[in-house]
Amino acid sequence: MPTLTVEGIGSFEVPQGKRLVNALVDECGVDQLHACGGHARCTTCRVDFVSGEPSKITKAEQEVLAAKGLAGSAGVRLSCQVLCDADMTVRVTSRLEGSGRQDAGGRPADAMQPEPVEWLDK
């Protein structure tokens, strides 16, 4: 099982292949935002990779990061579009606490969304 380290929170074993957004909530207890429900339509689930950033990116993530002016920002990724398939360390930048939102958003599905999922080299 991969180890997910969240700066300032701790290190946790997470199931292989689990979506990062759900691992942050389920295994790490982080109040991670995910306003669009994990469909790569917003950037509320973004995290900063400290280490272990995956070399693959979904086409949907690449497009939304570009549209929001975040493409090319070192380590900035959408946690709804990352699978936990290796050890990684992240800094959580979008939390419910202090956001002014009523809730974090609908729970993202276990399977990657939106379909069809197209993986690209980062």
Q: What's the topology here?
A:
Blueprint (H helix, E strand, L loop, with lengths): L2 E4 L3 E4 L4 E2 H7 L19 E6 L4 E3 H9 L8 E3 L4 E2 L3 E5 L26 E3 L1
Parallel strand pairs: 1-8
Antiparallel strand pairs: 1-2, 3-7, 4-6, 4-8, 5-9
Overall description:
The model has no long low-confidence stretch (mean pLDDT 95). This protein has 122 residues and is α+β, with helices and mostly antiparallel strands. The chain has a single domain, classed as Roll (Ubiquitin-like (UB roll)). It has helices at residues 20-26, 59-67; strands at residues 3-6, 10-13, 18-19, 46-51, 56-58, 76-78, 83-84, 88-92, 119-121. It contains two helices and nine strands, in the order E-E-E-H-E-E-H-E-E-E-E. It starts with a strand and ends with a strand. The radius of gyration is 13 Å and the shape is globular. The strands form three sheets. The protein has a five-stranded mixed β-sheet, with helices on one face. A two-stranded antiparallel ribbon has the order 3-7. The longest helix has 9 residues, at 59-67. It is 13% helix and 26% strand.
Nutshell version of this structure?
The protein has two helices and nine strands; from the N terminus they run βββαββαββββ. By secondary structure, it is an alpha+beta fold. The chain has a five-stranded mixed β-sheet with strand order 2-1-8-4-6, covered by helices on one side. It has a two-stranded antiparallel sheet with strand order 3-7. Strands 5-9 form a two-stranded antiparallel sheet.
β-strand number: 9
Query: What's the CATH first level?
Result: Alpha Beta
> Which residues sit in consecutive blocks of at least 5 with pLDDT less than 50?
none
Q: Summarize the helix and strand pattern as letters.
A: EEEHEEHEEEE
Overall geometry comes to globular
Q: Order of strands in the sheet with the most strands?
A: 2-1-8-4-6
CATH topology: the name is Ubiquitin-like (UB roll)
Number of helix segments? 2
Radius of gyration: 13 Å
Q: What level of helicity do the residues show?
A: 10-25%
CATH architecture: Roll
Number of domains: 1
> From the structure provided, what is the oligomeric state, counting identical versus distinct chains?
single chain
Write the CATH homologous superfamily.
Beta-grasp domain
How would a textbook summarize the main sheet?
A: 5 strands, mixed
